Amino acid sequence: MGKITEKIKQGKVLISDGAWGTFLQNKGLAIGECPELWNITHPGEVLDIARSYIDSGADMIETNSFGGTRFKLEKFNLADQVFTLNKAAAQISREAAGTKLVLGSVGPTGKILMMGDVTEDELYEAFKEQACGLEAGGVDAVVVETMSDIDEARIAIKAAKENTQLEVICTMTFEKTVTGEYRSMMGVSPAEMVQPLLDAGADIIGANCGNGIAGMVNIVKEIRKINPLIPVLIHANAGMPVYNDGETVFPEKPEEMAAFIPEIIAAGANIIGGCCGTTPEHICKIKEAVNKQT
Predict the structure, then answer these.
(1) What is the mean pLDDT of the chain?
(2) What total of structural domains would you count in the chain?
């Protein structure tokens, strides 16, 4: 059993980290600049972000590697740097984490299988390359996240599972439809994702982005109806986005987000962190709320 699932089996609710993208932009990452290149050009800034989440009480932090497949990096003429940039991302978070856990972030490629943009084999090789770089840098697990296509998610899980010794987490992104159901952009419901992800080899599943923590409560309940035992990770946004003077703002304050912790633990979440708009302050308040519950 891996380190993360082992801790969950002991009955612990674990705390993950918060947003990275906005944090990088606050530190000077320009629009259109490659975030993963900062692992080489601005390692101190990336380390500072990772450390800030450890200091706020996170049990695990991610890596600055969300767009680290060759399909994303080729847009910056960096397709030959996949292993190097992912390894560097992992090493930075590993240094910050110390004895805490590190999750290697793997995002979608932007290619659509059903449109014929890419083959399954090409996706598999791209995810394999990224996962191997993350493992070489010292991550404890791979987190395949923000997925909307079940097939892409399944291929990413298999590539990591079959080519590394790491635990594999997979989270999909759901939005509430006008009829009140939760669906991914490709039409997948939380209930429908469970078995395919497990069959592909996922050790932990869940949801990230797309919802504030209130919406995530219902998503966890839907997962739990299908499988009461699989560990569930939730990375919620700081509320739903509001467009203000041309800027996207996530309005939920740390205390507001933390107020839902009893409900989401009761629903069955095992790992709780943040996505868009969440900060070290959000993670600190989530940690306090979890400690009161457990």
Answers:
(1) 97
(2) 1
Per-residue burial over 179-196, b if 16 or more Cβ lie within 10 Å, else e, is eeebbbebebbbbbbbeb
Whether this model's pTM surpasses 0.85: yes
Q: For position 105, which CATH number holds?
A: 3.20.20.330
Distances (CA, A) of 3 to 19, 55, 88, 111: 23, 21, 22, 32
In a domain, 17, yes or no: no
Cβ contacts of 189-193, under 8 Å, gap ≥ 24: 189/222, 190/219, 190/222, 190/223, 191/222, 191/223, 191/225, 191/226, 192/150, 193/150, 193/153
**Given this model, what pLDDT does residue 259 score?**
98
Interval 14-38 mean pLDDT: 96
Query: Is residue 51 assigned to a domain?
Result: yes
Cβ 197 vs Cβ 205: under 8 Å? yes
> For residue 284, is it within any domain?
no
Burial 25-47 (b: 16+ CB within 10 A, else e): eeeebeeeebbbbbbeebbebbb
Residue 6 lies in a domain: no
Q: Which domain holds residue 210?
A: 24-231
